[in-house]
Specification:
The protein is built from 24 helices and nine strands. It is an alpha/beta fold and 549 residues long.
Length: 549
């Protein structure tokens, strides 16, 4: 019967009755397998089963993509022959997720893992199954070596053992390490500053977990339409192979919170494992519903010791002082450190025994300015101004001048800093030194007149004065107490003796009756209250009594 004619499964390459092909795929290629005619002639490897039979004419063009055959087709006719180049034993087989080995200490021999290669190639049926390995006669194909990629990309580690700088995440007994080793990765969000290893960690997770479907996208270059297309491919791949694809979405904060809603359903249904990365605070830039579906892992700035290991892994330098200086100069950004190192090496003119000699003086000469993480609109902007404010409040003039310099030398608006010091003069110093407020206002006006870089000393003068001035927060606390009272109680009416009476009608209504003009009672006790009657009766106070000592 036509319904019993077998077809070849695109996953396991075994003959299956055409009427049962869907059930066979749903069972992950374990049911309804028929003995093939080729079994009598001897076992054949999975790769050999796709090679053309001896004596068959070579195809004239590249074979089309495999599709399920109809019942009238035979198993042999449903398998398109490969091209002669693909069937040659010397032709390399490119695995879908096996990067070549890297030579860490030779810049031009480093061969990075390229995710774009995985994105563009569709794995064959044998490559899509992790339990099938290519025959020994078909070695993995290596990428052509290139020196055009930056050193920061060439020196990316290919295993977690060389991933430095984040021991709290990839240590021996850390949660993320255990999840990677188990191969059951949930959807996660990687939050950290630039150059801390978010992209590298995502690639290592994709390589270590071993899923054949791994895609990289970026919120800076891709749209939601692109993400929807990849999500459809991931769902189809998951239904076909039973594996859970991995989607790495870099710069996810570039999408609006409304656009981020697209990820909710695929992540909830498990169509793919989402690995998102952001440099912004997820509490402010990431959809709260998406946050509840992902585990957030925080990556810190790389410390100088780990930065030394990263630099040494990329290239061997002659002088240890140059490595230490470069490690501090990068401010925890590995990408910046390696790119700076590449610029130093490319500009070096001294060679000894075919080796580039890099000295500390050369590094200082080429790299004049420290690379500091600072974003006027990001979290670091508020972190630094908060540290400055708290240092002044704590009367630590040294810390106040340090944080002030960090801001103004990184390009912060000096008028913003001056406005903040006006606030500090009243909030934290207040009645402790009433001259602090005029000085802060004068500092703001001086910055407007002089500008940077000459106004830096004026800002430092005001910051040191505010830090050393005596602190008094009575006014600030009293204002907060009054606000709480207004918010929690009704608006009481103004007493009649305090009201103004500009017209005769108001005088007849009792406005201003009983008011005692204070200058007429100098040296006398006046029985007169000024609060609403309801607050006066209960003795409401917001300011403490002044210290008369």
């Amino acid at each position: 019967m036509a319904s019993s004619a077998p077809v070849v499964c695109p996953c396991c390459n075994k003959p299956i009755p055409s009427a049962l092909i869907n059930e066979h795929l749903d069972s992950q290629c374990s049911l309804f397998v028929q003995p093939s005619a080729a079994a009598s002639s001897g076992p054949r490897s999975p790769r050999q089963s796709w090679l053309p039979k001896p004596g068959s004419p070579p195809p004239s063009k590249a074979p089309p993509k495999r599709k399920l055959t109809s019942a009238s087709q035979s198993p042999s006719s449903s398998v398109p022959p490969l091209s002669p180049s693909a069937s040659s034993a010397s032709a390399p087989l490119k695995p879908p997720f096996s990067p070549p080995e890297t030579h860490l200490h030779q810049q031009h021999d480093i061969e990075p893992y390229d995710s774009q290669e995985v994105d563009q190639e569709e794995p064959s049926p044998d490559e899509a199954r992790p339990d099938r390995t290519p025959p020994a006669s078909l070695p993995p194909k290596k990428k052509p070596r290139t020196s055009h990629a930056p050193l920061a990309d060439l020196a990316r580690p290919t295993d977690l053992g060389h991933f430095y700088g984040q021991p709290s995440l990839v240590g021996d007994d850390c949660l993320l390490s255990r999840l990677i080793q188990s191969g059951r990765m949930p959807s996660i969000l990687l939050w950290g500053p630039p150059g801390c290893g978010k992209t590298t960690l995502a690639r290592l997770i994709g390589r270590t977990v071993g899923n054949s479907f791994y895609r990289e996208m970026s919120g800076a270059t891709h749209s939601i339409a692109d993400v929807r297309k990849i999500a459809t491919e991931a769902r189809n791949q998951s239904n076909l192979t039973g594996q859970r694809p991995i989607l790495f979405m870099d710069e996810i904060h570039r999408f609006t919170k409304l656009q981020q809603d697209f990820f909710l359903k695929p992540v909830e249904e498990g169509n793919f494992t989402l690995i998102a990365a952001t440099t912004e605070n997820p509490s402010f830039r990431i959809n709260s519903a998406l946050l509840s579906r992902c585990r957030v892992f925080v990556l810190n700035k790389i410390d100088p010791e780990a930065m030394k290991a990263i630099i040494m892994r990329a290239v061997r330098l002659k002088e240890e002082n140059a490595i230490g200086y470069l490690s501090i100069l990068s401010d925890g950004d590995a990408r910046s450190a390696l790119n700076s190192l590449e610029m130093v090496v490319d500009s070096a003119i001294g060679y000894k025994q075919n080796r580039v000699v890099v000295t500390l003086d050369q590094v200082k000469q080429i790299l004049q300015k420290t690379h500091m993480l600072y974003d006027k609109d990001g979290e670091e902007h508020y972190n630094l101004i908060s540290a400055f404010h708290k240092s002044v409040r704590g009367s630590d003039e040294d810390a106040a001048l340090y944080w002030l310099s960090r801001m103004i030398f990184a390009g912060e608006d000096v008028l913003y800093v001056a406005r903040r010091m006006i606030r500090i003069a009243s909030e934290d110093i207040g009645l402790g030194d009433s001259q602090a407020l005029p000085l802060a206002v004068a500092t703001y006006q001086s910055c407007q007149i002089v500008g940077m870089p000459e106004c830096d000393v004026m800002l430092a003068h005001c910051a040191a004065y505010l830090a050393r001035a005596p602190k008094n927060v009575d006014v600030y606390k009293a204002l907060k107490f009054v606000r709480e009272t207004i918010d929690s109680e009704q608006g009481y009416p103004v007493p009649f003796h305090l009201r103004n009476a500009p017209t005769r009608l108001m005088e007849q209504m009792g406005y201003g009756n009983g008011y005692k003009y204070n200058p007429d009672y100098v040296g006398q006790d006046i029985d007169q209250y000024y609060l609403p009657e309801e607050l006066h009766r209960r003795g409401w106070k917001c300011m403490p009594k002044p210290d008369t000592k």
